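Example 3.
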Amino acid sequence: MDAIARRRLLLLAPLGVVAAGGAAFWAMLDRMQSGRFDPHDIGNPMLGKPMPSFNLPAVAPSQGFSSQDVRAAAARKPVLLNFFASWCVPCAAEAESLAALAGQGVQLWGIAYKDKPEKTRAFLDQYGNPYARIAADSTGSTFIDFGLYGVPENFIIDATGHIAWHLAGPVSEPMIPKIVSLQS
Amino acid sequence: MLANPIQETRAEQLGSQLRCLVCQNESIEDSNADLAKDLRAIVRQRIQAGDTDNQIMAWMVARYGNFVRLRPPLTAATFLLWFTPALALLAGAGAAFLGRRRPVALVPPLTPAEQARLTELSRTA
């Protein structure tokens, strides 16, 4: 190749770099839109590990529960553990999907994060109560032990008391079949 | 705030290396988020309980993964993050070496015929 042809080719190099960057950016946006990539998802290192132990008081009239209780219930059938709060907007948004899951026989237990019991009750009166049991994490320490950084988050506890599945965010309608399938 | 200034300094140093998971680009010392406040309190509780800095870091990483560390450790996934400057320097050195100016080849001495022609031309001039 002569010197002039090589120089012309070198002039195109910056253009190639910009094109590659553009293609990568487009791929990222496409994945974000289709839900295959979430830049805010930091991954939960607790996944696959035994659930942290806790013992939380009740939000009356429900019964409170401990990690032992969850484990005992999960030995029969996996438990979907949902962290929520009355002041949380996406929690209200997932209420309908949670109700659908409970309707399909999913064992759904709730933990109210840093919430006053009367506020939690008012929230459940307004959006419905899909939970078999509700406990109150008023200090937020169980929240931190599970590696949460926001509400809602969802965990499935399997028969051995391990965290089998995790979702950092609200359950949406398209996820229902997948969650139900994880129950068997 | 811890009453012991040495412990408080340790807590602040540790806290400035821990990411606030809510704001993500602030340390828990800088953030006003509720979770950052709780994590700051936990760092101080554990310091008072006698934990080492490494133990406290491990406690955080067990819950939030390496993402919680503002200074990521060297792993297979962060290899490029740590070594890109060195790799870029090597690539630059390589490019400079390949593109260096080569000495111009020496002009071969004149052949006897050329020499004769030169002498002739000088004479006529």
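The CA atoms of residues 40 and 68 of chain B lie 13 Å apart. The radius of gyration of chain B is 34 Å.
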